[in-house]
Write a structure and sequence with these properties.
This protein is mainly alpha-helical. It contains five helices and no strands.
């Protein structure tokens, strides 16, 4: 497998599950813009971590492969959220479950 294809594959795998992890942090009351910023920042961080985990810190010497992995994570996370996790209601359910309720809301 070519190195670029491997980088894109790694990015897609990480990005496919990232929306479920991001849903733990996000809150239902947040605006769509705020949620998008959190999702993009999480994808960029996850992309950097995926590069480091896959090839070690020396992997960052290869700018094209690093970029392919980070963009793969970003594209896969946004796509999987829109096509799978949001319609299945799983990501919104995780957001609701991980949101702390005030004493007034619990009543």
């Amino acid at each position: 497998m070519s190195a670029t294809l491997h980088s894109l594959s790694t990015g897609a795998q990480v990005g496919a599950v990232l929306p479920l992890l991001t849903a733990v942090v996000q809150r239902p009351a947040w605006s769509a813009k705020h949620k998008k910023v959190v999702a993009v920042v999480a994808a960029l961080i996850a992309g950097v971590l995926a590069v480091a985990a896959d090839g070690g810190w020396t992997q960052f010497q290869h700018g094209q492969l690093t970029t392919a992995t980070v963009l793969g994570v970003l594209a896969a996370s946004q796509t999987s959220y829109d096509l799978v996790w949001k319609p299945s209601k799983l990501a919104p359910m995780i957001e609701s479950m991980t949101t702390k309720r005030s004493p007034q809301q619990a009543e």
